[in-house]
Amino acid sequence: VERNTEEINRVARALNKLLYYNLKVDKNTVCLREELEAVAQYVFLQQSRFSFRYVVNVLEEKAYDARIPRFILQPIVENAVLHGLANCRSGGEVTVSFSCDKKNIYIVTEDNGEGMNHENMEEIMSCETEDEGHIGVSNVLRRLRLYFGKQADITISSERDCGTIVTVILPVK
Questions:
Q1: CA 148 to each of CA 29, 68, 73, 118, 171: distance values in angstroms, whole numbers, following the listed order
Q2: Which of 113, 121, 134, 166, CA to CA, is 20 to 30 A from 140?
Q3: What are the tens digits of pLDDT across the range 2-54?
Q4: CA gap 111, 79 in Å, rounded
Q5: Sign of the four-CA dihedral 23, 25, 28, 31
Q6: Alpha carbon 157 to chain centroid, angstroms
């Protein structure tokens, strides 16, 4: 009973932190470090439901301080967990890597799940309205373009039974 109570407390704290982050209206942008902390809370909550591994690869320390619009990464990680790993019985993994060069910041989210075919990727990337069923990616791309213009982009690479790679490309400001 004591162990269950502690687990419930941890889940409640994670949910509280995630909700607080998502409902903040005082800042339109955050540093990548803050976004990753919010994603870690989301992942913790999902790991209480599903069994998967979450890995963050820091390829460039200075990318931590890059300013990005809030709530960019969580919808992409959510898609990886709920769609990519949905039918994965064991060994599921989501990896987020980020790096930067003089011009761009690259945030790469990979899953080793079921992947998707070319038509599904085109549908997701060409989706202009939220009623198409791909709210996460289309909303993220629209918000990125509002903030960064056409310099921001999202690419998706996937193959059936081989996982999916989503790359968010942001200009260094």
A1: 12, 9, 16, 27, 7
A2: 113
A3: 667 777 677 677 666 666 656 665 677 888 899 999 999 999 989 988 889 99
A4: 10
A5: negative
A6: 15
Cα–Cα distance, 162 to 113 (Å, whole number): 7
- The single-letter DSSP state of residue 149 is G
Helix (H) or strand (E) holding 40: helix 32-47
**Rg of the chain's alpha carbons, rounded to an integer?**
16
Sequence-distant (≥ 6) Cβ neighbours of residue 51 within 8 angstroms = 90, 92
Q: Which two tokens stand for residue 43?
A: 């992942």
Q: What is the CA 76 to chain-centroid distance, rounded?
A: 3
Strands 164-171 and 153-158: antiparallel
Max intra-chain CA distance, the chain: 54
Amino acid making up residue 2: E
The first and second tokens of residue 135, run together, are 């709210």
Provide φ and ψ at 112, rounded to 5°: -105, 30
Kindly report, residue by residue over 59-109, the tens digit of the pLDDT.
Answer: 888 888 888 888 899 999 999 998 899 887 788 999 999 888 889 999 999
